[in-house]
Every structure is written in structure tokens, then in C-alpha cells.
Recover the amino acids of this structure.
């Protein structure tokens, strides 16, 4: 059991060594111009110690703990001898100029290579190998993933077409498209499917269709799709609505703080909070969860919300929406406030009403920000893990990719399949990240 | 007629249109606060529950406490006490969280500041593609490094060449220790940290740097005396983001110290408590609030920096 003092000491040592080494190496490098012999001896000692340590670790020659220190002494002597006849001043200056960037970059690169680059390469390598990573299996892991009906299936796809949600969604889509085209023809204008009414109804239709899929198609990868669609859409829209409301309401900053607060809580903490909301006790006893309290109060039978497939996934998704809406709201609110007032006033002077100003000025102006919010949310949601792990542990048909990766890698101990799934996640994230970084860079310039 | 003249001119009857307008104007406020109420209800329920006795938490809804408040500190006392169990108490998990979070915040800040300065203000060959390579690492999900890192921490890394085994990374037996967790976080934090700090440092005015160089200052001097102090807002924004990210992390902690209760942070404890069949619900409420106390304090005290850090850092993972 670590005590607070020990922890402070440990942290102090770790941070001190990191910063201290950086300062020390820079100080040694400073000597290259003035006291070249000192610089040469110190760097010789460092190189000697490193070579000695590598030789020792390989068990080459005789081995033994004397190797690193012996190497250091030898290197120091060699360096000091070299330092007897230092190169001309200009070359020493250039040496410092050349080595300085390496000193600044090396510590970060060391950590990046050990804990990010090398593991990533190894995961890709493992994804083409067997359970324990011993034999090459080609694409077998990927093939077995897509054959696993728990991860990917098309069974039940036929039921979508006949489901009521799907029919209503398609009906809505057809009706609104027809209405828009007819109206445009009558008014002799171009068809504008980006206008508010078609946009809203097409979004609604899309949501209905995906809901129909939730009812019929169930597998890990499909669940990830549902998470992405609903969290991204609803959080962004709710965030936009709240940002607009807050702009005109009293108590704006307090209200925004309260909506944003879930972002500060861990996903685990948020899940625990929502376990209480969804809590279930059999009929006849007092309900302790708010949702069942309201449901039973309204005359319903108590429901085990998070255990009843297929809609339990939607109750888990609601938790993520609760967390991410604050993020969308804060980002979009900042963008809305940054829309130039002259533009808005000019539109009003021209006789535009509030709705027109919003759809024709504000939305186009904040479109880049909306795109950032959407891509960011998709990336976050693709990796969703904690909520599912804590709420259902992936049971009752709620499993998602990140939880499947964990189960394959650390519970089934099938490193090949676990790694192949991780590679899938990686491949899904890359294009989004490229879009996002491009935008962030252009925003920074 | 005199009665009419006596009506104070300050209160003319308001036209009905304006009153309607005022009523319409308050709709956003009403709707907003309704949503806020729904949004805060789950957290409020948890907060109220944490002050209710075990029996009450398990048998009645928390809202009954609003009309019949019988509040107690028992749950908080229970999560902080060591009596009766071998499991570490919440203080231990709090300290473990600190032991992981503080180095996982400070070390990447330092390393990223060095590297970001080099990318922003030094001339060297390969600067462009090296920076792009670092930024490209942003796309790598945590899941890509967990299995290899666990193998690295438990057995080191070895390469066999011509029948000789070369140790690339010694077996440090790190699995089950906070060190394994924070080293992992340092690596995964660096691409974002370097990217953000570089963007900030590169936007500092060139004239200041040139003036300092003319005065004879070398790179370490410019870095420590000039760039680092000027970069405090960016450092604070990233620092807060990283602190909360690591404090709230569950996946990395579960992978490396999930099997070691003595070393596990609060998120692990919380998830374990939550995994039971409801027998520990009264403890869960208090534990949830203990674990969110620090992030919430940071959130309310440093909201400006927090928002900035979050906006910049939300692509992480």
C-alpha cells in the first residue's frame, strides 16, 4: 500500500529525472563550443555505457554487470583523447546546431516509439497470426470475424423492409421529396433539398429507418453503427438547439454549465449514475429507479430497461447522448456567438425573420464547426467501451467493437482475433482523423 | 375627468401585443431550464441517494427523501473505512488515482513542450515529415497498443538474431503497478500534446525570437525563459484535459492494474462495486461522488481552461 509521501516522492523522481536529464544533456552540449574535451569525454562515456549495456543484455561474450560501467570508462577515455585536438570552432558550432533538435525531440520520440509506434506495428503483425501469435494465418482472423454471427450478420435484414418504422420512414421520405419538387415546380424555382423542411424530414426518415434496423439487425458491428448514428445526430441537434436557446435565455452560463457537467464525470461514473435511473425491481415493490418510477406511476408494468433486447441498446446510447450533448452545445455556442453581427443585421434590414436568419445565415456560417463536432463525436463513439462494459458487460445483445476487442484479447486470449478487431477500429478511425486534423490545422493557421 | 388626470403617467396600460411578445420572449428560458432539469435529474438522484441509509436506498426511490428527508453520512463513512474487509478503502484508490494521474499529466507536458519547440522554432532536416508522422499517430486508437504493451511490461521485448537473444526492452515486471498505467498514458498523450503545443508556439511572434537570438540567447535559453512562460495558457489547457482524461480513464487501468486492487484507481473500484447484484448500491452512490469530486472541482474552478482544453483535445482516444 503506497502512502501519500511515497507517491509524492515517486512522482517527484519520475518528473525530476525526465526534466533533469533534458537539462543535463543540454548543458553537456553547451560545452562543445567552449570546453570541447569535457563534451567529448561526457558523450564518449554515454555512448560507451549504452554499448556496454546492449552487449551485456545480449549475453554476448562473458556478460556481467561490469559491461556498462566498463564501457563508460573506456568511452570517456577515448572521448578525452579525441578532445585533445578539437575541431575548428565553426565546425563545433555547427555540431551544436545539428545535435540540439535531436536533444529536444529524443525524449518524446523515445516514448512514442516504445508505447505507441512499436505496439501498433506489433498489433498489425499479430492480426495476421494465430491465437498465440505463433503461426501465420493470413487473413483468417478477419474472415472469422465477419463469419461470426455475433459480430456481423445479415440475418434479419429481411424483417427491416416489412417493419412499420421502415415503412413510415420511407413514406415520409417519398412524401416530402414529392412535396418539395411540386412546390418548386409551382413556384418555378430550383429544387432545394437543403431547405429546412426537407432537411428535417429526411433526417427524421433516416432515424426511423435506422430504428427499424435496430429492431431487426443485431450484431457487434451493427451496434457500433447505431451508436454512431444516434449519438452523433441527437447530440449535435440537441447541442445546436440548446446553444440557440441559451443565446436568448436568462441564466445562460449556469444552464450551460449544468448541461456540460457530465463531460467532467468519468464514463464509469456516468454509467453508475444511469444504473440508478434504469434500476428495476419486480412489480408490487417500490421502484427505486426514476424511469420505472415514472413508468409505473403512469400505469405501466416495471421494465428491466437495460436487459430487454433490442431496445436496451437505445437506453445505453441515451447515456452517451447525455454526456456528449454538452460538448456539442459548448462548441456550437461559441461558433454561433462568432457569427459577425453585421451579417445578421443586414439580413434583418432586408426583411428576414428569425427563422430565415437562422437557416440562411447562422447555419451556413457555422457549418465548418458542425462538421468538426460530427467527426469528433463519431471518433469518440466508435471507441465507446466504458458505458457498455459497466452497464451490461456486452450481454443482452448490446456488445460493441471496443468491448469485443477487450474480451477477445484478455478474456478469450485470442490475440490474433483481438488484434484483427483492433485493426478494424483503427481503419475506421483513420479517414475521420485525417478530416479532423486538416480542419484543426486550417483553423490554427 | 380629474380622476383620469390622476392616473400616474408612469404606468400606462401595456398594449396586448407587447405583453404577448414578452411572454413569447420567455419561452427560450422556460424550455432551456426544463431541459436543464431533465439533464441534472440523474446526477441529483445519485447525490440525494448517497446521503440515504442502506435500507432506504435499496427499497424506496430517492425522491421520497425530498418529502421525508432522513439523511446520513453512513455511506461516505463506509467507503472510507477499512474495517471489516481486506479490500482497500476509497482513500487508497484515491491515492492510486493520484499516483497515476500526476505523472501521466506532467511528463507528457514536459516532453511535448520540448518537441513542440523543436518543431516550431528549430531548423533541421526532416522537420516537415517528422511532424506529420507525429500528428498521424493521433489516429491510432488505444486498443492498438494494449496487447503488445502488456506483453512488454510482463516479459520485456527480445529479438533473436543468429541464435543470440538481444533484449530490446528489459523485463521490468511493471504489470500491476501504477507505473505501467502512466507510461502508457504518456505515450498515447504525446501526439495530441505535441500537435496542440506546436500550433500555439508557432503562433508566437517571430520578432521576439529573432530579438532574443540577436541578444545571443541559444535555444535552451529561449525555450526556458521565453517560450515556456508565454505558452502557459496552452500548457494549462492541455494539462487540464489530460488530467481529467487520465483520472476518468477506465480501459488502460483495467488492462494493466485491473487484477491488482491495491494499485487500482477509483474508476476500477467504482466499476467493481457496480458489477455486483445491487448489494452494494448504497456504497456505490457515495463512491461515485468521491470519485467525481476532484474532476467536478477542477471543472467549476477552471471552466475556461477546461473548455479550451476539451475543445482541442476531444479527438483523443
Amino acid at each position: 500500500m503506497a502512502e501519500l509521501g511515497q507517491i509524492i516522492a515517486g512522482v517527484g523522481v519520475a518528473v525530476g529525472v525526465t526534466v533533469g536529464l533534458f537539462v543535463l544533456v543540454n548543458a553537456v552540449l553547451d560545452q562543445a563550443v567552449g570546453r570541447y574535451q569535457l563534451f567529448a569525454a561526457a558523450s564518449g562515456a554515454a555512448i560507451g555505457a549504452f554499448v556496454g549495456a546492449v552487449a551485456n543484455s545480449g549475453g554476448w561474450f562473458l556478460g556481467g554487470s561490469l559491461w556498462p560501467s566498463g564501457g563508460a570508462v573506456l568511452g570517456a577515455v577515448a572521448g578525452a583523447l579525441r578532445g585533445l585536438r578539437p575541431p575548428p570552432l565553426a565546425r563545433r558550432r555547427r555540431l551544436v546546431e545539428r545535435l540540439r533538435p535531436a536533444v529536444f525531440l529524443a525524449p518524446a520520440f523515445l516514448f512514442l516509439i516504445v508505447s505507441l509506434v512499436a505496439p501498433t506495428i506489433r498489433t498489425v503483425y499479430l492480426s495476421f497470426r494465430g491465437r498465440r501469435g505463433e503461426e501465420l494465418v493470413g487473413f483468417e482472423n478477419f474472415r472469422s470475424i465477419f463469419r461470426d454471427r455475433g459480430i456481423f450478420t445479415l440475418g434479419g435484414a429481411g424483417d427491416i423492409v416489412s417493419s412499420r418504422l421502415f415503412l413510415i420512414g420511407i413514406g415520409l421520405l417519398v412524401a416530402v421529396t414529392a412535396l418539395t419538387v411540386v412546390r418548386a415546380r409551382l413556384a418555378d424555382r430550383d429544387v432545394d433539398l437543403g431547405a429546412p423542411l426537407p432537411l428535417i424530414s429526411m433526417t427524421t426518415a433516416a432515424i426511423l429507418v435506422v430504428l427499424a434496423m435496430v429492431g431487426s439487425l443485431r450484431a457487434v458491428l451493427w451496434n457500433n453503427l447505431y451508436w454512431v448514428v444516434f449519438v452523433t445526430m441527437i447530440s449535435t441537434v440537441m447541442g445546436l438547439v440548446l446553444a440557440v436557446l441559451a443565446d436568448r435565455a436568462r441564466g445562460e452560463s449556469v444552464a450551460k454549465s449544468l448541461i456540460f457537467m457530465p463531460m467532467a464525470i468519468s464514463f464509469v461514473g456516468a454509467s453508475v449514475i444511469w444504473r440508478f435511473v434504469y434500476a428495476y425491481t419486480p412489480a408490487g415493490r417500490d421502484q427505486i429507479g426514476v424511469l420505472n418510477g415514472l413508468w409505473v406511476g403512469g400505469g405501466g408494468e416495471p421494465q428491466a430497461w437495460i436487459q430487454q433486447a433490442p431496445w436496451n441498446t437505445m437506453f445505453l446510447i441515451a447515456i452517451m447522448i447525455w454526456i456528449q450533448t454538452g460538448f456539442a452545445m459548448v462548441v456550437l455556442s461559441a461558433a454561433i456567438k462568432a457569427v459577425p453581427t453585421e451579417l445578421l443585421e443586414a439580413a434583418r434590414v432586408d426583411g428576414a425573420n428569425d427563422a430565415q436568419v437562422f437557416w440562411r445565415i447562422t447555419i451556413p456560417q457555422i457549418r465548418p464547426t458542425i462538421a468538426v463536432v460530427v467527426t469528433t463525436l463519431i471518433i469518440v463513439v466508435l471507441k465507446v467501451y466504458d458505458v457498455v462494459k459497466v452497464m451490461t458487460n456486452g450481454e443482452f445483445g448490446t456488445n460493441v467493437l471496443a468491448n469485443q476487442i477487450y474480451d477477445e484479447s484478455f478474456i478469450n486470449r485470442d490475440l490474433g482475433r483481438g488484434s484483427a478487431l483492433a485493426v478494424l477500429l483503427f481503419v475506421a478511425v483513420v479517414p475521420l482523423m485525417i478530416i479532423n486534423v486538416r480542419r484543426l490545422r486550417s483553423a490554427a493557421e | 375627468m380629474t380622476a383620469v388626470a390622476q392616473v400616474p403617467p408612469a404606468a400606462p396600460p401595456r398594449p396586448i401585443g407587447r405583453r404577448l411578445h414578452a411572454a413569447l420572449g420567455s419561452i427560450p428560458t422556460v424550455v432551456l431550464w426544463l431541459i436543464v432539469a431533465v439533464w441534472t435529474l440523474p446526477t441529483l438522484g445519485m447525490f440525494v441517494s448517497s446521503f440515504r441509509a442502506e435500507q432506504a436506498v435499496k427499497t424506496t426511490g430517492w425522491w421520497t427523501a425530498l418529502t421525508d428527508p432522513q439523511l446520513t453520512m453512513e455511506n461516505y463513512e463506509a467507503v472510507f473505512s477499512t474495517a471489516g474487509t481486506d479490500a482497500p478503502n476509497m482513500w487508497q484508490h484515491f491515492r492510486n488515482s493520484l499516483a497515476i494521474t500526476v505523472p501521466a499529466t506532467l511528463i507528457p507536458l514536459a516532453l511535448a513542450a520540448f518537441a513542440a519547440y523543436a518543431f516550431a522554432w528549430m531548423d533541421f532536416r526532416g522537420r516537415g515529415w517528422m511532424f506529420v508522422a507525429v500528428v498521424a499517430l493521433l489516429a491510432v486508437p488505444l486498443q492498438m497498443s494494449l496487447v503488445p504493451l502488456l506483453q512488454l511490461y510482463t516479459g520485456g521485448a527480445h529479438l533473436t538474431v543468429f541464435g543470440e537473444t538481444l533484449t530490446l526492452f528489459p523485463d521490468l515486471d511493471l504489470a500491476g503497478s501504477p507505473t505501467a498505467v502512466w507510461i502508457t498514458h504518456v505515450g498515447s498523450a504525446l501526439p495530441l500534446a505535441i500537435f496542440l503545443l506546436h500550433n500555439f508556439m508557432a503562433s508566437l511572434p517571430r520578432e521576439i525570437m529573432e530579438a532574443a537570438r540577436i541578444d545571443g540567447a541559444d535555444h535552451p535559453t529561449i525555450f526556458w525563459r521565453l517560450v515556456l512562460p508565454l505558452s502557459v495558457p496552452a500548457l494549462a489547457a492541455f494539462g487540464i484535459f489530460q488530467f481529467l482524461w487520465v483520472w476518468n480513464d477506465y480501459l488502460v487501468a483495467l488492462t494493466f492494474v485491473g487484477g491488482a486492487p491495491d494499485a487500482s484507481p477509483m474508476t476500477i473500484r467504482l466499476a467493481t462495486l457496480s458489477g455486483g447484484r445491487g448489494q452494494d448500491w448504497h456504497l456505490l452512490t457515495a463512491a461515485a461522488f468521491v470519485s467525481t469530486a476532484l474532476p467536478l472541482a477542477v471543472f467549476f474552478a477552471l471552466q475556461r481552461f477546461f473548455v479550451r482544453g476539451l475543445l482541442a483535445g476531444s479527438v483523443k482516444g
Summary: Chain B touches chain A through 123 residues (CB under 8 Å).
